[in-house]
Amino acid sequence: MTPVELSRTVLRAVRCAVDDGELGVVVPGRALVTAPGPGGCGDYATNIALQLARPAGQSPQRVAEVLRPYLLGAVGVSDVVVTGPGFLNISLHGAEASVALVREILRSGVRYGHADRPTGQLVQLHARHEVRAVVFMDVVARVLRSQGALVRTSCVARPEREWTEVLGAEVDAYGRPDAPAPLEVNVRPVPAAPADPVSLGRDAGRWALLHPAAHDRPRITAEYLSQREGNPLFRVRYAHARTRALSRNAADLGFDAHPGDVQDVRELEIALADHPRILAAAATQHAPDRLARHLLAVADAVTPLFPTVLPRGEEKPSAAHRARLALAEAAGTVLAGGLSLLGIDAPDHL
After folding, report:
1. 112, 114, 166, 201: which has the fewest Cβ within 10 Å?
2. pTM, rounded to two decimals
3. 196 assigned to some structural domain
4. How far is CA 98 from the centre of its chain?
């Protein structure tokens, strides 16, 4: 069962509960399934009970208890535990959860974690005339669109040419709006001034502006151009490049990726499973820094896997090598998709 299939399973459970008269709600169009949070357990967790509590006129705990038996009866589900205020923690049979996760990522590609269809949400983003605000708005718009929203961006004045040509920040409109009333500036991160991120180029300049939280002043330094471990942007891009190199080297050795059970990689699996939740949170909170920090966590979690992917010496490729290669490729896919949303290149060679 893939994460997408599990999401559909959760929605089926809600629909069955409604049909049986256990819940009086409109079945939502989407159920968010993520890695369990602190205090959680199992392979995945969903907050669907918290989402439905108010329209159902019941407590989240009660809604969760209503849904639990329906989920327990689903094929592939081995256990369901209610934790916290009403989170449903779902365990799948054996190694099925990790295999399904990798398959889902490789099937979805860089769109893993994106919405399947438009949500109908309309968002107007309006930024002041400042380089960080314009780049910040550009990425918030990208992430919102990945979650199915229709977004229009504008700036109080025409962005400087290098903001567009060097940093790649796109704006739909600028200047005085046609609307009867002026638009409210709703994108206002702490400015980058007096430093100039344009001098760093597109990738390093954007990372320097986006990695800190909106309320923190970014540090515009040449350290983001260095190719060493102390540079977080280098770690993310290097991890992605390593996953691509492993795929090329495996092809030279005559084997390819095939999802399977991989031991001692729980931290990486949690980070990969958490990607859809991070994208949703970054969109809702207008916080591209959450995505940047998440990509760094994925990069750091996948790095210890690299030495184990390819056979050593006279060793022949095995099912374990194919499974580790599939997991590495899944991590590389998440890194590539996340960097793309940040407007940063994910090179295959570094």
Report:
1. 201
2. 0.82
3. yes
4. 17
